[in-house]
Amino acid sequence: MGVLLSPAIAQADSGRDDIPAWNGTVLGFEPQAGDLLSRRLGLRQALQAFGFEYQLAHISQTAYNAKGGYNTDKKAEYIDQFSLTFTQNLEMLTGIPDAAIEGNIVNRNHDNNLTSTRLQDPRVGFNDLAQESWGGQSITRLGWLNFRRSFLDGKLQWRIGLMNKVQDFDQIIPCDFQMLSLCGGKSADSGTWYNWNVHYWGSTVQYRLTPELTLLTGLLEQNPQAPSRSHAWSVSTDGSRGILLPLEAEWRTRRFGLPGIYSLGLLYTNAKQTDLYLGQSGGPGAVDPAGYRQYRNTWFLYTGFNQQLTRHADNVNRGLSMSWSLSLADQRSNKSRYSSSLALRYRGPFDARPNDWLALGVAKMQGSANFRRGQNFLNQQNEAEDYSDPRYAPLPESSVNAELYYRFKATPWLELQPLIQYWGRPGGIAQTSDAWVVGLKTAINF
Fold first, then answer.
1. Alpha helices, DSSP H only, in 33-139?
2. Could you count the other beta carbons within 10 Å of the beta carbon of residue 289?
3. What's 221's DSSP letter?
4. So what's the pLDDT on residue 14?
5. Which of 132, 172, 230, 332 could make an S-S bridge to 183, C-beta 3.0–4.6 Å?
6. Which residues share a beta bridge with 273?
7. Which residues contact 424 (CB under 8 A, 6 or more apart)?
8. Under DSSP, is residue 155 helix (H, G, I), strand (E, B) or coil?
9. Confidence at residue 8, expressed as pLDDT on a 0 to 100 scale
């Protein structure tokens, strides 16, 4: 994904004078404190006069396999990306109240990935990434471009156009870790919609039932071709298979004395999904003349919370928070059965460094029993019993990964984040040795 913060939920009014405003800073959602171009050129202030708000950022992620993995030869991999996210206020230009155009453009460079080159067996697809911003290609893409308007004094918000799920859904946990399984929520594990820099047609609605409870839904295109290079700037629906219907409830609360945010989401698609084992005739699909069985009406469940636990006595923006997320997939057609992560974050761990972060996260991924069944059948067909046999199809089970990082706020516009990762049974393959990875993530706000 590559998103460090979500300013949209950093602060929120409680709606009552006797209740302090909901403040998501310690949860990981920091409002942008400063940027290089404003300090040097005053560019932001000049554009704000015309209703144009932007965030221009550069993120780099480096990972080095210090020990273990599928390939123990030492190597460092580097990737980076530039992203421009913008909002143009239309009310001051056209008179349309509470209306805006929103857009996002992402440029990714260096098609390198330590996970596939060193950490995991290339014979199975990855279930995690050491560098979450890797997207499989060096490319500049349109992430989204749409129209947004609010109604009923801001209680109802509507978007339409070229969308991305991160604008509305599954946004209670920030993407601060470099490891993908700890970056944000789990809804992208569905494999039916895509994160950050991939767009698809759709329309979404948010309705705030109470100051704390918001319902979110929408109708989106399900297009497996959307991440391809040919769709980077396309407005075509070529490749679409059906629709996505998400439904999510998001609850922001101070009922425990400190800010917290909780969500429960269900994602439905009518697009055809292919069984990982069964064929059309009921036997193994690998030998079925009619091919593998296909399904419609597939579901995916995701949920989580992000709760502040402590608050520093003299600074409300310092303290400890805990987040947890979980996804449950239809394992007939999804290589994942479930994925879960738990993380602790502390903002301002030292009096001398009130804006730094210290964080530790652990994630578990459980593979689909149906996929394992299909892999096992292929081994029987190929008479391959030895893991070292090139014909052998590895049998993924579960894996446990972890990351510890410290983020230095060097300047208002520069962050340096050294980190260490532990990979237990990479890719869920028992024959792959546990691995240790050291890395560095940097972020610059221009």
1. 36-41, 43-48, 91-94, 114
2. 7
3. E
4. 43
5. 132
6. 295
7. 399, 400, 401, 402, 434
8. coil
9. 45
Query: Which amino acid, residue 141?
Result: R
Mean pLDDT by 10 residues, the chain (446 residues): 43 47 92 76 84 94 96 95 96 90 95 92 92 90 97 96 97 97 94 92 97 97 94 94 97 91 97 94 91 93 97 94 97 94 97 96 96 94 92 95 97 95 96 97 94
Q: Which two tokens stand for residue 227?
A: 């991440």
Q: Which of these, 315, 320, 393, lies nearest to 352 by C-alpha position?
A: 315
Question: What CA–CA distance (Å, rounded) separates 29 from 38?
Answer: 21
Q: What is the pLDDT of residue 445?
A: 92
Helix (H) or strand (E) holding 379: helix 369-382
The length of the chain is 446
- Cα separation, 276 vs 404, in Å, equals 35
* Sign of the dihedral through C-alpha 32, 37, 39, 43: negative
Amino acid in the structure at residue 54:
Y
- What is the token pair recorded at 305? 């919370």
Query: How many angstroms separate the CA atoms of 52 and 154, rounded?
Result: 20
| Pairwise CA distance, residues 231 & 226, whole Å | 6
pLDDT in the model for residue 262: 97
Contact 259, 26 (CB under 8 A): yes
SS3 1: coil
The answer to whether residues 111 and 133 touch, using CB atoms and an 8 Å cutoff, is: no
Residues 428 and 444 sit within 8 Å (Cβ to Cβ): no
